[in-house]
Amino acid sequence: MQVYIMDLSRNRLYGSIPSCFANISFGMAAGESSFVTSLIRFNAIISLSSYYSSNLELNSDTSGSQRPYRQAEAEFTTKYRHNSYQGDILHYMFGLDLSCNELSGDIPAQVGELKNLRALNLSHNKLSGSIPVSFSSLKQIESLDLSSNNLSGQIPSQLTELHFLSIFNVSYNNLSGMTPDKGQFATFDRSSYEGNPSLCGSLIEKSCNSSEVPPTTVPFDGEENDTMVDMVAFGWTFSASYAMVLLALAAVLCINPHWRYLWFNSVDWIIYLCFKMFS
Fold it and tell me: Which residue windows are transmembrane per the record (predicted)?
């Protein structure tokens, strides 16, 4: 039996994601009857509103006397569009939803082998480790939601090879490094990355410099240098002025005897007062 949509969201599943998920064949094998559409659903009847959701209703139709078959109808939300599909069209809608559980551990690299998936939702779990590079093999993927987990490390640059990816959400994890900005990733905004303080890049308007640039101290250094220059200039100016005063005083005393007489009398009077004060 081929599986088209597997919805295990909103349960209480815990533990790690089994690597044997890679053994599930998403798609229709050659020669398979188009009257059988495999929709697997084990979740509460809750309408999902995240980036990818599937609200599956299996309606049995036994009209006719030839052979009974089960006509399936699924509500499939991707690319922000909510549509209902029924019948053979579901052969092209391949999705896996494990969101809103308690799954933990690393995401198995084998999930990248589900190459027919168009939507993968692992959000709102407790998954850790890094985003598998093998996700770059999901060439048909249109919606990838890994938000609200504990994923760490960098976003693999190989994911830019996913040319049909239109919804990408890794918000509220512990990712770090530069956000990809090529291919479809150039169309994603900061809402796809919020809640990851260690991420950087032009798309989220955060510089990727390894160290923060310290506040400039040029004005302070300039003021200090200006102060030093002013002190040196003041010293030279004061010395020159003092020398000029002394030379002017000596010239006056030499030229004018009256001023010379008053000068020496004043000096004698000062010496006398000092002698009398300390004697």
Answer: 233-254
- Asked if residue 138 lies in contact with residue 160, where contact means CB atoms within 8 angstroms, the answer is no
Residue from 140, 128, 93, 135 nearest 111 by CA = 135
Number of neighbours of residue 75 by Cβ within 10 angstroms: 16
Do residues 164 and 185 lie in contact, with contact meaning Cβ atoms separated by under 8 Å? no
Give the pairing of strands 53-61 and 69-78. Answer: antiparallel
- Determine whether 60 is exposed, middle or buried from the number of CB atoms within 10 Å of its CB (0-12, 13-18, 19+): exposed
pLDDT tens per residue across span 103-132 = 999 999 999 998 888 889 999 999 999 999
Report how far residue 184's alpha carbon sits from residue 163's, in angstroms, rounded to the nearest whole number: 6
CATH architecture of the domain 5-204 equals: Alpha-Beta Horseshoe (3.80)
Domain ranges, ordered by start, for the chain:
5-204, 218-278
With both helix axes pointing from N to C terminus, report the angle between 257-278 and 218-255 in degrees, rounded to the nearest 10.
Answer: 110
Nearest-CA neighbor of 155 among 138, 173, 137, 177? 177
Contact between 15 and 104 (Cβ < 8 Å): yes
Question: What is the maximal distance between C-alpha atoms in the chain?
Answer: 149
How distant is the alpha carbon of residue 231 from its chain centre? 51
What pLDDT score was predicted for residue 175? 95
pLDDT of 276 higher than 80 = no
- Please, are residues 51 and 79 in contact by the beta-carbon 8 Å criterion? no
Rounded Cα distance, 76 and 83, in Å? 6
